[in-house]
Amino acid sequence: MKKLRQVLRFVIPYWRQTLLTIFFNLLSVLFSVVSLVLFIPVLNILFKETPAVVVAPPFALTIESIKLNFYHLISHIIETSGSITALTYICISVVILFFLKNLFRYLAMYFLAPIRNGVVKDIRNELYLQIMILPLAYYTEQRKGDIISRMTADVQEIQWTIMTSLEMLFREPISIVFYLVSMFLISPQLTFFVLILFPVSGFIIAKVGSSLRRTSDKGQAKMGELLSNIEETIGGLRIIKAFNAIDSTNDRFKKINNNYTRLMNRLFRKRDLASPMSEFLAIIVVGGVLMYGGTLILTPGSHTLTASVFITYILIFSQLLNPVKSITDAYSNVQKGAASVERIQQVLDADEVITEKPDAKSINDFNDSIIYKGVCFTYEKEEVLHDINIEIKKGKTIAVVGPSGAGKSTMVDLLPRFYDCTEGELLVDGINVKDYIISDLRRLMGIVTQETILFNESVFNNIAFGMPNVTEEDVIRAAKIANAHEFIVQLEYGYNTNIGDRGMKLSGGQKQRLSIARAVLMNPPVMILDEATSSLDTESERLVQDALTKLMQNRTSIVIAHRLSTVQFADEIIVLQHGKIVERGNHAELTALGGVYHKLCELQTFS
User: Fold this and answer.
1) CA gap 566, 401 in Å, rounded
2) Residue 248 gets which letter from DSSP?
3) 360 found inside a domain
4) 382-393 and 369-379 as β-strands: parallel, antiparallel, unpaired?
5) Are residues 285 and 406 in the same domain?
6) Which of 79, 117, 205, 336 would staple 216 via disulfide (CB 3.0–4.6 Å)?
């Protein structure tokens, strides 16, 4: 039930529809009970047991008063028009009451539909926002396929299991209460007997449901692994084909898929056991009621029940079985969906390590300097950066070089707060970056990375990404600065051409120039270039390097360098090794020093 409460908090915004659903369910059950109670006079007429009530008693809001006045009306109709007419009127009344019952049931479900779909929509929205807010470090520990599984398969599981149980929550308890009250009024002895038998069957079904939840949890985790494998396969098709690894990759997928299938077989068998088991247990209860009730009727001298009343009692009891069975089925569904709720809640409850202070300061421009002051960064007990001290004056270009794993990307990722330093301070214009509004801080920076991130959108929307109210002239101007306009106009639909998933319709150099155009359009005072030309051919590098040179004019730039041409004109070059600054100076000074930088220049393998 704790898992169900976590989902039901999303129902609060839909309280109006919830009240209407409960109200119409109440009317539906009320008319259902009244229509069934009308079978007593029908049976009494058929069995010729209708007591004649000649004088109408004073009317009062009591069961006995309503009953006597109703029998007075029937007695009057029988006396004036005959038993057949009275029976006809009662049957018409039953039909009308059943029509009203089903009308109100439909209205209850009508108002339930936006609750069910709205709650699932809100869960998906909250999950999507949380995925964007969580720090990058979170995704180094998670499979992308598993995250996708939680947003799709797990959310869908909630819709088909827990959300379908909302109907049970809003209707079945009301039905059970009304039917039990009616049964108590007809025969307290029989009803007590029913209440003794029901908890036993409920306990057995609960045990099945508990086992179902554990199996479902394993199944959802295995689905995440399956989607991760598919995502990795699609992303690595070039390597899989190049290394003739189709058979081994296919065997790996089959193994995961077979494990998932076996788990789902167990899951469906347990889930499908719940319904026939609850029905069989209900029949045991029915048999007990028939036996005990028949004994009360047939025992000489016992007048607690008449045949017509007992038949009506069985009719009402049969109606009670459906909501009880629905609750047991819903309980099994909730147990199955609880695993999905738990997996989704793990994402929603994940710590937002990069948090913004309530009194965070706004920053709209960069005026003086960026200072790394004794900065250290530790990731999972491994020290990535140690005692970094750098001052970057406005308008200067700083290059960061070093072997792979030296901590170059981590160092620049601290500036836009993709990570936070574990020791020391990172200051922008003399104020710690942790004291700024995060969105304001990131707005000061344009980032061009080695792995170009583009979206399955048009060229225009990729360049104008994140910037509303951008004109076509602005986008074209940015594209020209980035040396991208010439190839864009040659595309089929120019700036309106869709570039495909991750820009697959473009070459590496074209994608990188679009990324630079995006940064140009943003017009930030600080540029971060993370190995922006390392994976390009010579011609593409020339075009991209020319675009980068234009981009860096009159800006403060931090360049993670791969090739010598990118760094030799930097105002200062920082050489990192094992997370520490081992050398610093300009190109000529470091070359003459004959140290790490000199060796990197000789090897031409900046990472």
Assistant:
1) 11
2) H
3) no
4) antiparallel
5) no
6) 336
